[in-house]
Amino acid sequence: MSTDVATVPVAAAVPTAPAEPPRKGRGRLRTVLLGLPVPLLFLLVWHLGRAGEWELPFGIRMGFLPYPTDVAAGLANYVAGIRDDAFSNLLWEDLPASALRVFSGFALATLIAVPLGVLMGRFSTVNSLFDPMINLFRPIPATAWVPLVALLIGYGDQASIFLITLSAFFPIVLGTISGARQVPERLLEAARMLGTTGVGTLLRVVLPAAAPAIVNGMRVGLGLAWVILVLSETTGVPTGLGSTIFLARDVVQTDQIVVGMICIAVAGFLSDRLLMLVFRVLFRDRPLIK
Amino acid sequence: MDTEHLAAGRTADVRIAGLSKVYAGAVTAMADVDLTIASGEFVAVVGASGCGKSTLLRILAGFERPTAGTVEVGGTPVTGPGPDRGVVFQDYGLFPWLSVRENVAYGPSRKKLSKAEVAAVTDRFIAAVGLTRFAAKYPAQLSGGMQQRVAIARVLANDPSLLLMDEPFGALDALTRTDLQAELKRIHVETRTTVVFVTHSIEEAVYLADRVVVMTGGASHGVPGHVQAIVPVDLPDRDVTSPAFNEVKRQVAELVHTVPVAV
Ligand SMILES: Nc1ncnc2c1ncn2[C@@H]1O[C@H](COP(=O)(O)OP(=O)(O)O)[C@@H](O)[C@H]1O
Ligand SMILES: [Mg+2]
Predict the structure, then answer these.
(1) Is the pTM here over 0.95, yes or no?
(2) Which residues are within 8 A (CB) of A148 and not within 5 positions of it... i.e. 6 or more apart?
(3) ipTM of the modeled complex
């Protein structure tokens, strides 16, 4: 069967935090209090392990880790330049460079994936045309693309953005296809009897009805874009959160490696929030299907 | 309700001849239906479940293609759905992401009208169904009866020449139902749009219609659905408690329960 693209559970990979039901008063306090002990314990074990140079399974030698306090200092330096070294204040060069790559790749992926997904979801001919290609390319991990991309595109921003576009594309197209397929038949009939035809139906009925699934796909896509960022910055771009991690590795500055990891995590989290904010402004409080 | 500003709408006659519908899987839903409806007439279609009422309506709407026969609305053969034939569904079919005002404005905004004209038409029909105070609400915030009012306003604002309603009040409670019946009647008097109204309430049919089309048969009877009889309702006023009204009801009920004979 060639029509099973939409059955991939895209929603399963959506970040869960913003979807949590709003809590108030005691409930919220309880959530915060319950959320603290495990991370604090983690920091404590990290500190003790570093001090005692523990050897853990997988051959983890904790003696090679920086102390949590070193990482904090490294972070402060990266953000506000409290030392005076190669990494001071660098965040403000790296973050914009990385964010620009992520958002360009993500925007490009969205621009291609949403129209394609709408057409594939609504027209079986279009689906039959593109479905085999999507199934063929989807399982190829971005890592596997890197050598080929290096040869085809060379090093630099274009290669980096290409890899990000590629990674973000699939969840968005799959989410859009499944959303476009699930448009209630009744709404399509309503639109037709009111005089809507062709592209009008896609824009005025299919797109809004599929919006929740498209949004889910876009969130997964944006998340993947950040995941793939470090890899995409192995393409020899000089600045970026990922590039700096590699620089830190080359000069064996472990605290800076961890700082880079933290910054990418935070940037990924914040950009998901930003995306949700954009949608909230766009949809205001319009009730969407489901 | 405030229907005094409703301009007389467009209106069209309906000619159905030799209409049959066989669904995929060889279910003959309906065979040899002939029916002519005059411009401005209000026709109710009654009959037991499965006799092909919805099929007939959906063919008129252009959602289904007939297997045989012809359907003309206002002299034009029906080839697909179009804004000249407004449909009111039992489950409303409102766009959940559009407010009441936006749902009603949906049809007018697609036409070559100025913003002010669209707003005027929209407001007029929202007022006609008594929802002015709720214009900014979304469908999910309204009761079933109010949602059906929105659906009616949405279709009327699109100025159809034929109004097709498939058990539109079937999901509503009795009081809401009576209210909406009275309102629909007033709206019809005002607009004179031709109406085909499917229901399985005989009382509703006799209360609303100029003529009641009784359908019988259906796949489960071994006979395709067909028109059993057409009962004109010649009552000057529709007092549901009057003996004359109940006499027509009795007559229709008898026909509805006629056991169809295999042809
Ligand atoms: N889309 C369809 N495909 C196959 N059979 C259908 C379809 N729609 C209706 N039918 C069948 O056609 C017959 C008439 O259905 P319908 O027109 O819905 O009757 P009613 O509205 O009077 O209850 C029924 O036997 C029904 O099962
Ligand atoms: Mg029906």
Answers:
(1) no
(2) none
(3) 0.92
